[in-house]
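User: Predict RNase H type-1 domain-containing protein's structure from this.
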Amino acid sequence: MFFPHSSIESFPRGATPRPRCSIDASCHQDDALFGGGMVLTDEDGVTAFGSFTSNQSLTPPPPPLHVELHTLLWVMKSSFQLNHLDMTFETDSQQ
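Assistant:
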């Protein structure tokens, strides 16, 4: 689940907010497949969404931190392909 931003950020006059990308990963104990998603907002407020499902089966099921890292790597590659070279990544992972 993507989490809404509940805080209001202020930037110094003349400063441009950096692009930001919220990520989330998903897996289930009884299933070796996993996936993740992203919501990317650029400096102009334009939003892009994306998701993936792994096509590799991992046995035993991967630990949550492994799934979060796999998702982060996918999101970093995706944002680079979209020509976003300066990005703030956000996750709700507790690990």
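Residues 1-11 have pLDDT under 50 and may be disordered.
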